User: What shape does this take?
Amino acid sequence: MIPIRDNIPTRSFPVLTVLLIGINTGVFLYELSLPENQLQLFVYSFGLLPTDIVEFNLLPIFTHMFLHGDVGHILGNMLFLWVFGNNVEDALGKVKFLTFYILSGLGSAFLQSSVSLITGDLNTPMIGASGAISGILAGYMRLFPFAKVLAVIPPFIFFIFTLPAWFFIGYWFLIQVLSAMFIPVTLGGVAWYAHIGGFLTGWYTLRLFIKNPLKF
Assistant: This one.
């Protein structure tokens, strides 16, 4: 499912959400400017290898969140960040939102890297903001479960559906879990466990940032 917008207005301009989108976009444009050999070196230098978690290599643990593999990858991530991030930022405030975002990204990195270490997939760098954004989705679901999300559902691309946020995000999370269960990690492509790790981190740590989020 592809979100278009929600029906929750914000009280202030989402500065950090826009800034994060800008940084991710800027890094991706820089990636596009690199020749293939330099791009590969860039990704392996700033993407996250599973061993980086064990060795506590801080730089890629953080920088992997700002790299993307292709246009579809970044467009999808930034769309989800814009639709859901602005309201979470509005609810938490700037500093807490940024901390929550990064913490979700770290949780996603830990779970995906742990699974990769267990399965022996040691040479595939993890890149992308989707783990951190998964935490934002969890936060949104707990804060605004009954918000209305306008979405396109492939293959019905000519129809727009209005769905409650709990259904949209809950269905999205179910897809991540099923994909992680049935698609081999070594197949590569999508870091399903990163999505799950980011979501669970966001779900269980939201209470550290805001009092009395809705309990399911």
